[in-house]
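Memo to structure team: turn this sequence into structure tokens by end of day. - J.P.
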Amino acid sequence: MENRIYYGQYSLWHWTELVLKRNIVLPEYQRYFVWEEKQVSTLIETFKENQFVPPVTIGAFKISGTNRNLILDGQQRITSILLAYLGLYPDEQTYRTTIERFANENDEPDEDGESQFDNILEWNIETLTEKGRSKEAILEKVRDGNYKSINLGIDDDFLKKTFLGFSYLVPQVSNENEQQKYYSSVFRNINIQGKPLLPQESRASFLLKEMYENHLYQHRNRVAHNTQSYQQNLPTLKTLESESYRYDNYFIYFAILILIDNIFIDIYSRYLETLEEVGQYS
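Reply from structure team:
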């Protein structure tokens, strides 16, 4: 059978229901929530103005015999919709201030007390969905000062009349190995379209695992050895000043080292650009 891809759209209300009921979940490798409060607000305004919002990508996974629907692309959007619905934002400064105040009010260290607060520094949507399956259940368990309260001017009617598109991937594979290969190509296509992954999610993703094992790791020694050889073969200043010096290898080695430097500078620049793009498009 051929792999299937289904397209459609759900109301924002239905998306919140899918998340709260854990019918869609984050893969283990997914990064933390990284959007600023302004980006959450901008997304909601975009919906209000009926402008285009990129669709979400969901993948059907079979893990140890269990079927799961994982959010492959769109965590930031889905999380932002739920946060707007709950009226909460995981604000780092609010969290730090609350923890500091809690520590000051308690003379003795109280790690158990602090652990009752959600760690906003390492936070994603599942921190909230683990508290309950409804808005009321979650808000009841959220401690005062743990989150920043927000009001983006939306109600249930808005959520039920506003829609966000999706693509749903269902690979027709016989084992988890083939499933891994299929989603490896999916991640590659997501990257090509300008929605690259952050390092922490890439390290665990199928695509990077394949690239690392088949390319980078295999050639690591050759790259390190060659670079070291070029450096060791550079003549000293004393050698260059010597009248008996007749070789021009110095210029070749030096040119190669400069090229290597430029390559790594370019790679780092692209890395920084990637971090910016993730914040804009995720």
